Amino acid sequence: MYNSNNNNNLQEKGKFLIETFGCQMNVADSELVAGMLQKCGYSETRDLNQADIIFMNTCAIREKAEETVHHRLDSIQHLKKRKPEMIFGVLGCMAQNLKDDLLESKPYVDIILGPDSYRRIPEIINNRKKQNGHEVDTRLSKYEVYDNLMPSRQDGVNAFVSISRGCDKFCTFCIVPFTRGRERSRSNESIIREVQDAVKNGFAEITLLGQNVNSYRTEEGKFPHLLEGVAMVPGVKRIRYMSPHPQDMDDHLLQVMSEHKNICNHVHLPLQAGSDRILKRMNRTYTKTEFLNLVDTIRDYIPNCSISTDIIVGFPGETNVEYEETLEVMNKVIFDRAFMFKYSPRPGTKAAEYSDQIDEVIKQKRLTRLIDLQQTHTLKANQRHIGKVLKVMVEKESKKSPQQWSGRTEGNMGVIFDKNDEQIKDIVDILIQDAQGVSMFGNRVLEKEMIHEVN
To answer: Most buried residue among 64, 241, 258, 396 by CB atoms closer than 10 A?
Structure first.
């Protein structure tokens, strides 16, 4: 593990453990909290039995995510009974959204903090040495972006860098504006500094994160300007970003992507639904035709671009015909990958109030069919690479065999290949020979053997 806050001279005060649920934004937040705790003199452990502080960084985006956290809390509450002085905390979106329920049903939870209150953690921990009782802070901020705090990351290839917080889009199905507040962007300078720090500590790939990452804007410029600045940081081998909103994709962004080789030829472009009426009900601010035109524009600028997406089925009022429209869009685009979900009502959102909710059985049937279709599309997308040479970053040893590597293409697709003299974080040329499921298989091609290269 690497720690941006080097505290070798601090006397250890105890051990902490953070379990993270949900999206990459939560991963980045957990790394910020870990950095603060280490700066205060605490060390990280992965053993629950050794921990003096346990934080659950939670997700509220779907009901299932909340249920998972509830079950996890119940399963480890015995640790608090055995060690009453332990500090037990719930952080993040679920803390923000369900603080009353947590206070009532989980009395063993000491601290409940929303996503904008993490700077208070050192102060809260110190106060608990003087007094017991619950500490709750779920106030949302118009300004907090956690500038000037450096994360503590586990060793790895990819560093998640949060560039903005909150959301102003107010999609009717989404609880994020209520759990993470209004949209605000970090300074360009602080982001570049964090990227430089990550590279210095051995990370080869940077993923820029935001609820709507491409709506980033400061006095120094908008998202394309920031992306170009990150691309010019020495040592950054690959750059990704997620998740953009189709409304904020523009020619300038695509031009920057096409001009810098270390910006991956991959766009995660959430569709959500293929029906104009449902898109309007979702408040997605684009039509099916506009989405399809945007896909064409992306492929005009970046012909080899991989496109992935998010899709929700069973949104209130979705008819069979409207569901079929989503399948039609999928068949036109042929997404490389898709993250697919049944609609999950979130209390407080507009969509949860609609009277025409879809039966769970119908939602599940629609989801199953959607997944089956996407599996065929992913295989088809991978098979088109057979016989081509792709740039693959070595990420880890393959689970299939200790004699093989597992890596990813620019398009974020997995590739398995035999080990040679490569090292983790190397980018090597792989001749793709087969595609099965979501993975591709190939062999390394040395420069003198190169037949055809796909950037």
So the answer is: 241
pLDDT at 428: 97
d(Cα 31, Cα 34) in Å, to the nearest integer? 5
Over residues 415-447, the pLDDT tens digits come to 999 999 999 999 999 999 999 989 999 999 986
Q: Residue 265: left if φ>0, alpha if ψ -120 to 50, beta else—which one? A: beta
Q: How confident is the model at residue 98 (pLDDT cuts 50, 70, 90)?
A: confident
Distance from chain centroid for Cα 351: 24
Could you give the CA distance from residue 352 to residue 169 in angstroms, rounded to a whole number? 17
Structure tokens at 66: 């909340």
pLDDT in tens, 372-405: 999 999 999 999 999 999 999 999 999 989 999 9
pLDDT tens track for 331-371: 999 999 999 999 999 989 999 999 999 999 999 999 999 99
Q: Which two tokens stand for residue 29?
A: 């937040």
The closest of 450, 294, 440 to 380, measured between CA atoms, is 440
**149 to 55, 220, 372: CA distances (angstroms):** 19, 20, 43
Radius of gyration (C-alpha) of the chain in whole angstroms: 23
Nearest Cα neighbor of 142 from 176, 165, 125, 170 is 165
- Cβ neighbours for 300, distance < 8 A, ≥ 6 positions apart: none
pLDDT, position 182:
93
Asked whether 33 and 121 are in contact (CB, 8 A), the reply is yes
> How far, in Å, CA of 405 to CA of 394, rounded?
7
Both structure tokens of 363: 């939602």
Pairing of strands 14-20, 53-58: parallel
